[in-house]
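Students often ask why we bother encoding 3D structure as a string. The short answer is that it lets us treat folding as translation between two languages. Here is a chain of 344 residues written in the first language.
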Amino acid sequence: MAPVSGPLEGLTVVELAGIGPGPFCAMLLADLGAKVVRVQRPGGNPDGRGANPVLDRHRERVVEADLKTPDGVATVLDLVAEADALIEGFRPGVMERLGVGPAECLARNPRLVYGRMTGWGQDGPYAQTAGHDITYLAITGALHAIGRREAPTVPLNIVGDFGGGGMLLAFGLLAAVWRAARTGRGQVVDAAIVDGVAALTGMFHGSLARGAWTDEREANLLDGGAPFYDTYACADGRHVAVGALEPKFFRALIERLGLAADPAFAGDHLDPARWPAMRERLTSAFAARSRDAWTEVFAGTDCCVAPVLTFAEATQDPHNVARGTFRVFDGHTQPAPAPRFSDA
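And here it is in the second language, the structure alphabet:
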């Protein structure tokens, strides 16, 4: 896919090809107009497409370089000399051994921002060990909080690789580029997924500190403990999501369900003692109709109910269609660049 224009037009980024959060970060920057030059091993796809045609979109060009050779190292350093930032996702110490670590790159370009994407970070007792999204989530406490009471749920790698990883790296790179533009001095950005995920759990640590969160699964407002913030199976085996937290939305929900007079819903809906009875009634109610029937019932209301859509269904949702949330690029339906700018 050809490069695009946007608010980051004029920013040049060298991306050392990798997987997961690194390419995601590069995609975010390229989506907003940055010129991203991908460096990959010789023999790769000449258009720069790696394992994922969405994460690898919008690269300005692709350069082949074998970093185990002097010529490959020289190629990267030449690119770095004209770049604002670099993205790499190797284990700590690998880039230094190859001769393209921060010291060499910053010597070539003192204003360069050297972005490092890892799971554990550049130091610490786990830094040299293998890991994946689920293990990074595990040691931050986030995995413990996700799932039903019986066991944690294996989540998609949205929270770790992409939220706590690639997004954190993009944020860090732009912050450091902003500083370099004012001072002329580059620096290293150590973006660790464990650090990013920990930052994402800030609200829950704040709630723990004030006694508003129980450190157990399915026992709180936002973890499936509250019956009015959960998913329910419908008559056809599909599901709806309910998020009626505030009193006015909760009241609208039970009125729409025809349960306003049910004693189970009398009193304070935030009282955990009332939750088991409320859940039983809601489970029975939603099981009486299909997902799409409930979608029609709640359409246009403030009940905070939505159908749980598949990836394929999401591309056809009328709101997503109206906003162009998904678009077809290079024959693939994929999420459109985000966020949106009034003057790109």
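Translate back mentally: The chain has two domains: 12-200, 229-308. Keep this in mind for the problem set.
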